[in-house]
Amino acid sequence: MAEILPVNHFKNRKRYTERKHFIQERSKKISSGYKSDIKQYQVYCSSTAQPEGLESMLDYLYVSIVEQRVKKNTWEKRLSAIKRYLAVTYDVDFESEKAVLKDVSYIRSLYDDEENKTLIRVKGKQRVDKDDLVSLISTLPIREKAIALVNLVTASRPSEMVAIKMRDFDFDDNSVSIYMKKQKAWFDKRLNQLTVKAVKDYKAKYNLNDDDYLVGRVYKNGRYESVKVSTEAYRKFLNRTIGLTAYNLRKTQVSSMHEKGADLVTITKQTGHSSTQTLAEHYLNVSDKTVDKFL
């Protein structure tokens, strides 16, 4: 007589299969942030009549420095993107490609040469005078004013701004919870009274509920649609509204807080930076007002 297997046996096998399929699919996932770099590599291979692979990767990385003169951080991003692309698309195992990785390190060493010193210079984002900026934002329509103030005060990235929902605001506590995609964590950021009032006015005018997006979309006829817009659409919105980027606002807020006496730890609590070193290198190295006080 055939053995009768328990129901859980089949349920377990089904879950095992689903888990393996999930892991296989996840292992083949390529970050959307790599798409542009991968596309550029593909275009380079096509224009130079080279097949995609390790040799063309090394060639592209070399040309990126000696001919295209790309910054080191851009080069490193290209390297990461192409490695991921080749690993997923062509099953390249870079751990076993020791010679290739050694060649990569030699190419990277070009950045150590004197003639390439400008390529390793990290220039901070441009800041603007915060008081002048707030005055400009205060003249905007209700929706644009609320969004711009939230972006400025919270020093948020575009990917964070487009994901904020009305339920994330705590008006009683003067704060907003923002999911930091880069850190994969939630941060509670402080709001000033001007920003709280602006968001309340915006919410009231458009009759927004907790599940509605802060940014969303508004049509020419004034109709609001609760939708998570793309980061590119948000960048265009900011440029059209105030002529700046989210990173200009981020730099402005960081510099303003620092000039008022906030230490780096306090600033990172508001910006969500993972380290004070990153904050200082990318957002404070061209802020001269604090230095000028002591000259």
Automatic annotation (TrEMBL):
Keyword rRNA-binding among UniProt keywords: no
Keywords: DNA recombination, DNA-binding
Pfam families in the cross-refs: Phage_integrase
Segment forming the signal sequence: none
CDD domains tied to this protein: DNA_BRE_C (cd00397)
Keyword hit for Cell inner membrane: no
Protein name: Recombinase XerC
Family: Belongs to the 'phage' integrase family.
Domain Tyr recombinase span(s) in chain numbering: 123-295
GO MF terms held by the record: DNA binding
InterPro entries per the UniProt record, alphabetical: DNA_brk_join_enz (IPR011010), Integrase-like_cat_sf (IPR013762), Integrase_catalytic (IPR002104), Tyrosine_recombinase_XerCD (IPR050090)
Classification via PANTHER family: INTEGRASE_RECOMBINASE PROTEIN MJ0367-RELATED (PTHR30349:SF41), PHAGE INTEGRASE-RELATED (PTHR30349)
Protein's GO biological process: DNA integration; DNA recombination
